[in-house]
Write a structure and sequence with these properties.
This protein has 324 residues and is mostly helical. It has one domain: ABC transporter involved in vitamin B12 uptake, BtuC (Orthogonal Bundle), CATH 1.10.3470. Helices cover 76% and strands 0% of the residues. The chain has 14 helices and no strands. α4 runs parallel beside α11.
Length: 324
């Protein structure tokens, strides 16, 4: 019965995810009637609508869903690793390293592919830097890892400010849009979606161990869990997920913080439910946010990070007050 009850939230979230994707494909500066949308989905319809829906809107909607899922599940893993319900994927300076790499590539006049590659390299470099400094000559602890990440993030922030100050005027809008999070130039959803599927399959057998780890290292070790190995695996997985998300859409805030926190209040602390629920809820949230970003001031577009911040700040304050 318990397993059956835990499946119902996932079924509801899956239906919401499908509805958000269909809405994102159908809604835009050019409205698409439901009958035309159905015809395109069935392989028919007007060629212009097929190009608009299948080649422009659908890849962006899937990229938004994949990015939101990556950030949400990375946030859930970070909250388990640091045993802090307020941790998010960017707390260890990953977004700062990615931003420095991306902005440096933009200043060098490189193309979009090189910008994405530089962002991924910057995120991985920040991961290695934080872990190396936190480890030092001995063992690392969640507190030491968190403090090291905060300091490294502050350093990356100083470098970002410097790059914005010395950058030419014509490149500043693109740099600022990247920093605020933008899916307009997402290079396809398949990396994010494939990584989400691989993450779910890899973490599914570890759900029980993650539940024990969330209660503390001493209790986990007493129950036979290899704490250091599991913590290292969680750190690497969360870092790779965050790096892939930042590479796809830039720095998008609040998704990885609010979604796992909200799900934990609603569904409990079972990671076997929280992790897949985070994928579905995070993907749905960012898909809807990107849809709003496209239509609020159409034909102009807003950075999706602006929408997630406007939605995330009051939601998080409400959840914080509710859980007090």
């Amino acid at each position: 019965m318990a397993g059956r009850r835990s499946r119902w939230p996932l079924v509801i979230l899956a239906m919401m995810a499908i509805a958000s994707l269909l809405l994102s494909v159908a809604v835009g500066s050019v409205a698409t009637p439901p009958a035309e949308l159905w015809a395109v989905l069935m392989g028919e319809g007007d060629p212009l609508h097929r190009t608009l829906l299948l080649e422009l809107r659908a890849p962006r909607a899937l990229a938004a869903f994949g990015t939101g899922g990556l950030l949400a599940v990375a946030g859930a893993l970070m909250q388990v690793l640091l045993r802090n319900p307020l941790a998010d994927p960017y707390v260890l300076g990953l977004s700062g390293g990615a931003a420095v790499g991306a902005l440096g590539a933009m200043l060098a006049g490189l193309g979009a592919v090189a910008v994405s590659g530089s962002a991924f390299i910057g995120a991985l470099l920040s991961t290695l830097l934080v872990f190396g400094l936190a480890h030092g000559t001995g063992s690392w602890t969640p507190t030491r890892l968190l403090l090291t990440g905060v300091v490294v993030a502050a350093g990356w922030g100083a470098v970002i400010t410097f790059l914005l100050a010395v950058g030419p005027t014509e490149t500043l809008p693109g740099m600022l849009y990247w920093l605020m999070g933008d899916l307009a130039y997402a290079r396809g959803p398949w990396l994010a979606l494939g990584l989400l599927l691989a993450t779910w399959l890899a973490l599914l057998p570890l759900g029980r161990n993650l539940n024990v780890l969330a209660r503390g290292p001493l209790q986990a070790a007493a129950l036979g869990v290899s704490v250091r190995s599991l913590e290292g695996l969680v750190y690497v997985a969360a870092s790779l997920l965050t790096a892939a998300a930042v590479t796809t859409a830039g720095s998008i805030g609040f998704v990885g913080l609010v979604v796992p926190h909200m799900l934990r209040l609603l569904l409990g602390n079972d990671q076997r439910v929280i992790l897949p629920a985070s994928i579905l809820a995070g993907g749905t949230l960012l898909t809807l946010a990107d849809t709003l970003a496209r239509i609020l001031i159409a034909p102009e577009q807003l950075p999706v990070g602006v929408i997630t911040a406007l939605l995330g700040v009051p939601t998080f304050l409400y959840l914080l007050n509710r859980s007090r």
